[in-house]
TrEMBL record:
The protein's name: PLD phosphodiesterase domain-containing protein
SUPFAM superfamilies linked: Phospholipase D/nuclease
Signal sequence range: none
GO function terms (MF aspect): catalytic activity
PROSITE patterns, per database record: PLD
One Pfam short name: PLDc_2
BP term (GO), one: phosphorus metabolic process
Residue ranges of every copy of the PLD phosphodiesterase domain listed in the record: 200-227
InterPro entries attached to this UniProt entry: DrmC-like, PLD-like_dom, PLipase_D/transphosphatidylase
Organism: Oryzomonas rubra
Length: 265
């Protein structure tokens, strides 16, 4: 027989502990009654009483019921608080009752937390010096910090230059306008964005920031003033290592497999 424990899962942790204690050493150890449940829960919960009666009728004694309630409580306490693991990052005009902020604040918070590595993935960069300066300072403070950019280097319409020329121009522009500091990151790009054929051209359109394989900001915002400070943008700040690691590993795999190539800076 399959038991439905929803009524027990709906109880507060305090009520679960009270029931377990009573099954172990209190009134419920002497027998299950509506009066006992009423006293423990400050009101008789019919669903809880029915659930417990089903357990007892299927051969579970008071010690076993106590162990089950302890197990539910312990599992609940081990489970992560999802509100702390996943936080929406909403940028744009204020809406009453809905917390918002600029995307740049979330990005800078992650940068300050970084100890080993920062991965930044984006489609467009404009006037990046303002946005990236805290990251450059972090690199200066921590010489061991590895910073990797994966950005879209695209061929402009009508540009018939060699791929290497387009990439070198982008590198010069990146160094002059977006990263004028001596501590240099690594920069990678998708060579398919340079294809002269629209049939084969593809863009690196993802936008995210991953720190130390343990936290990630996945967002609609590009690395531009408008996107980071003014636009209506939506993202999710994830503090869940398995997910952040999966995102970082994907881009590392693209680099190692040659799908992303390194741009010389």
């Amino acid at each position: 027989m399959r038991l439905n424990l929803d009524a027990l899962h709906a109880l507060s942790t305090a009520n679960l502990r009270a029931l377990a204690t009573s099954f172990r050493d209190g009134q419920l150890a002497m027998g299950l009654t509506a009066a006992s449940i009423n006293q423990l829960l400050c009101g008789c919960d019919v669903d809880v009483l029915s659930c417990l009666e089903t357990l007892v009728s299927n051969g579970m004694g008071a010690p076993q019921c106590a162990l089950l309630l302890d197990a539910i409580t312990n599992e609940r306490e081990r489970a992560p608080d999802l509100a702390r693991l996943f936080e929406p990052v909403l940028s744009g005009p204020d809406v009453p009752g809905v917390p918002t902020g600029d995307t740049a604040a979330a990005m800078q918070m992650l940068v300050q937390e970084a100890r080993k590595e920062v991965l930044l993935v984006g489609y467009a960069v404009y006037n990046g010096e303002r946005l990236f300066e805290p990251l450059a300072l972090r690199m200066r403070e921590n010489p061991e910090l590895k910073v990797t950019f994966c950005l879209n280097i695209a061929r402009r319409f009508g540009d018939t230059s060699l791929d290497s020329e387009v990439v070198n121009r982008y590198a010069l522009d990146f160094h002059q306008k977006h990263w004028p500091w001596p501590e240099l990151p690594e920069l990678y790009y998708d060579p398919r964005a340079l294809s002269e054929s629209s049939e084969h051209r593809a863009s690196l359109h993802a936008k995210c920031v991953v720190v130390d394989h343990r936290a990630a900001l996945i967002t609609s915002a590009n690395f531009t003033d408008a996107a980071q400070y003014r636009n209506i943008e939506m993202g999710l700040l994830v503090r869940h290592s398995p997910l952040a690691e999966r995102v970082a590993d994907y881009f590392e795999g693209l680099r190692l497999s040659g799908h992303l190539l390194r741009c010389p800076l």
